[in-house]
């Protein structure tokens, strides 16, 4: 078996056992082509079957193991006239994203013909055109340095040119750990969950560009917030618009799970408007959220035992209980105090206290507060106008007005020991003049201590 046949068989075995894919994803390529061989001295032209195995090295270079089998003479003899094997470095002149990819190649090799063999080199240009992700046509034109031979004492060197057309097939397993269809080398998101749609970089698709991938985005077609699973929040209350029942809540207002302003006490007035946010449940409130006080006595209706009549705080909102008239004490039971208290006077036929009368009563209140042992007796009077019975009742009403006022100021009813309505008795001035009658319309006080 001559050298050319050995080389042929070796090349065929290498191509059929190692040929697998190429590029960054498919790193091996297998090429098969046919073309024309020629010599520079025009000694003949023949067919050029070609096989090659290429290995991806980088985005710029491939390494190729190439074999050419030349059959010379126009008669196309069945004898193999020449065989070559080269290790070429292929310089790629365009990126992998292009369909048309030109290149140049060169490298050392081994050439053998019927009589001679030896080391050699080749170089050339070519281009590939991809018709599919892993299938391309290729066209090459190259030069092969010939073998020096001696014939009839004359040294000759046959140099060859060649032109080849063929196809390349790229194969191989592409590592894709997350099985998203993008190889690990290109995958910028290598841990994408199974079944999630991805872009060219292997990252989950984010249709609305809000930074939340569609498979996690509750609102994949509208840009939103990461904190709300990709949904927008127009009023900024922390509740996504799709769940917000009050989408125009003012900023800074606390909201419930539905995005509506909180109503902590459940009175129907939201906290941002409620002046009394701690109203007990069930209490009737006004437009400000405060408990209603129908009689205006400062005690809300839900606490007021007499909600329609103004009363006293210490009597659950009801008017002060009338102090029962107690039996007059004997001189032996009391110690009268030498404290002069000015009587209070009243408008004709009336029992209410004027502002001036209330100011006069402040001295009585201070006196009683100055010594808890002090007690008071009260005596009510009228002028001479009206019947006796009417004046007795009127004088009692005046005493009652004073007692209610004292109780409202914190004076205990137990310290009012004796009260007596005397009507028009014991005038202290003439009832014939208005000034005299005013002096007679009065309530007088006695301050004493119990023995």
From TrEMBL:
Domain of life: Bacteria
MF annotations from Gene Ontology: calcium ion binding; porin activity
Membrane topology: Multi-pass membrane protein
Record-linked InterPro entries: Bact_OuterMem_StrucFunc, Beta-barrel_OMP, OMP/PagP_B-barrel, OMP_bac, OmpA-like, OmpA-like_sf, Thrombospondin_3-like_rpt, TSP_type-3_rpt
Record keywords: Cell outer membrane, Ion transport, Membrane, Porin, Signal, Transmembrane, Transmembrane beta strand, Transport
UniProt-listed PROSITE patterns: OMPA_2 (PS51123)
Compartments (UniProt record): Cell outer membrane
Compositional bias ranges of the Basic and acidic residues kind: 272-290
Name of this protein: Outer membrane protein A
Signal peptide stretch: 1-21
CC per GO annotation: cell outer membrane; pore complex
Disordered: region residues: 271-293
Keyword ATP-binding: no
OmpA-like domain residues: 333-451
GO biological process per UniProt: cell adhesion; monoatomic ion transport
Transcription among keywords: no
